[in-house]
Each structure stands twice: as C-alpha cells, then as structure tokens.
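Example with several molecule types.
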Amino acid sequence: MAIDHLDGRLLVLLAEEPRIGVLEMSRRLGVARGTVQARLDRLQSNGVIRGFGPQVDPAALGYPVTAFATLQIRQGQGADVRAHLATVPEVLELHTTTGSGDMLCRLVARSNADLQRVIDRVVGFDGIVRASTAIVMENPVPLRIIPLVEQAATEH
Amino acid sequence: MAIDHLDGRLLVLLAEEPRIGVLEMSRRLGVARGTVQARLDRLQSNGVIRGFGPQVDPAALGYPVTAFATLQIRQGQGADVRAHLATVPEVLELHTTTGSGDMLCRLVARSNADLQRVIDRVVGFDGIVRASTAIVMENPVPLRIIPLVEQAATEH
DNA sequence: GAGCCTCTGAGCAGATTGTCCAGCTGATAC
DNA sequence: GTATCAGCTGGACAATCTGCTCAGAGGCTC
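Resulting structure tokens for the full complex:
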C-alpha cells in the first residue's frame, strides 16, 4: 500500500507517456526490465493502479456542459435513488455525503438547455426531495493524481 | 466529433480490456487492423480519447477520505485562489461554478483528522471567504463514461 | 462517370513481450 | 558470524506485435 520512490517515478512516467512499453520504461528509469514488470504487477494487484482505460472527454463526445447537483433524499429511499441515477448515462459520478440524506452527482449535457432535460430526468424520481445545481464554468485544475503520487512517494 | 457505432464498440472494448493490442482489438471487432489503427488515431486527434494514463486509486495510496468543498471567493481573487489550490496535492480537481465567486473542489486526506489539516491548508488563503465541506461516505457510481459513449454511439 | 474516402487483406523488417535463468546485493533471523 | 530470503540485474529465447506500405474494392458526392 505504501509506494516508494521508484514506484512514484514509474507512475509519473506512465502518466506522462502512457504508450511507452515496459522496455522503454526500464531504459528511462535506469532499471532492469524485470524490475519494472514486477513493480507494475505489484501496483496493479495492490489496487494502486486500477486500470489503463482510455480517458474520454465528454466535451468531445458532444457533451460540453458539466454540472454538479446536490440532491436531498427522502429518508430510506437512498438505494432506490442510487439505482435510478445509475441508469442515467449523463450521471458520470455519484457520491453520498455527510448530511441528512444528501448526494452529490456530476452531470454532463449537450447544452445549457439540454441540462434542463437531464436534471428533470435525474430529479423526476420519487425519493428526491430537493436538488440544487451548480454549472461548471471553468476547470482550472482537471482531475489529477500526480502531485499526490509524488507526495506519497516522497514520504515513502 | 460525432462517433459512430464502431467507435463506440472500440471505446467500450478498450475500457474493458485496456491492455489488449491493436491486432487483438481488430480480431474482436471483426475489422481489419488498419481500420482499428485509423479509428484510434482519429479518436485521439479528435480529442475524444485524451489519453491512456493509469487510473490511480487515492485510497490505495493511503488517502481513503474524499470530500467536496465549496469555496466562496472574494471578488477579483479568483486567479490567486486557483494558483494557491493548484499547489495543494490533496486538491484533485477544481471547478469554478455559477454563483458569485464560487468554486468546487475535490479533496482527499489520510483520515478524517487529516482532512482538517487539508482544509486548513486549502482555506488558509486570503481570497477565500467561506468554505463548506461535504465528506464522501459512499461512491455508488464511480466516475464512468461508458454509458455516455454508448448513448453517443447509438445516436450516431 | 470521375474523384474521394474508408475499409480490406496482405507483406515486411524491426521491436517488444512473456518467460526463463544464474548471479549479486542488502536486510533479517539465528 | 553466518544462513536465509527477497529484490534487482543482465542475459537469453521464441512468439508476437507494431509501424509502415501497398493495391484493390466498395460507397458517397458532385
């Protein structure tokens, strides 16, 4: 679960140039190929690396509008609401948070007008008492992990 | 910018088994290798596929606590606050949203107690007027894109 | 019909992968 | 001090995949 400096460098390298192979990585890091392979296997079975799926940009797919909605859930309806939201493709992410029956979800839509349709679909469900939505204007820090990896690797 | 059915299948396949190569993909999809290569190149230059970076799990790195903080920013201090937050490794993501000088950021921490340290560091900056934090308890829908890809591919 | 784009199926040299192995090192246990 | 162990190194091998090229076929628009 703890990662050392070499793991950190490996992750950073992998994040910067994901297409390079094990052999090229071993050259860049100055270690043997077997070492890189062993480290990668360990990081994956550790769960540190969850996968290498493609990072798809919703905007390029035609969904340039992002919003966060805070939902207030009626007591005991949590499971139903979760199941409902999981069926909506525009719900990219859903969290339950502290507070009385609150959820936070990330939405995308084709336009501001389309966002209304998405929100109607999201909140058009019995267990949801109230929803408040914040539309994203800018994204100064896109989802990132490298700084955290570097910190975790430094502390080793 | 619009993706067709084959693009959709390609993305789904890539998301499910990211380590398979171009040749294996062409076999699974029943098309020629050159087609897969051309589609992949196009998706990448389109920006639909942003990259193939490793998906790192903060929890496995020792940061099991996630929280969302809504920040109220003093007028005109936005740029400074952005720069400040970008230097905090525990800030994984930052958005500016509708509303008067509001920002939303995703934080991680080593523990609930550690979250206090992170929040102090985040809000210990002049331009931030107020902050309210919601701690994530569950994550019923982890960040996903496949359902949206399938919808976009079906509409073609 | 001409022109254009995409897909197909094939070929080639070169590089990479998965998988072994023996030897070395540093740390830990006895 | 010495035995044991895990991790790293550097090397080898066959099998596979990649990047690149090509000619031909189909479908589309003008």
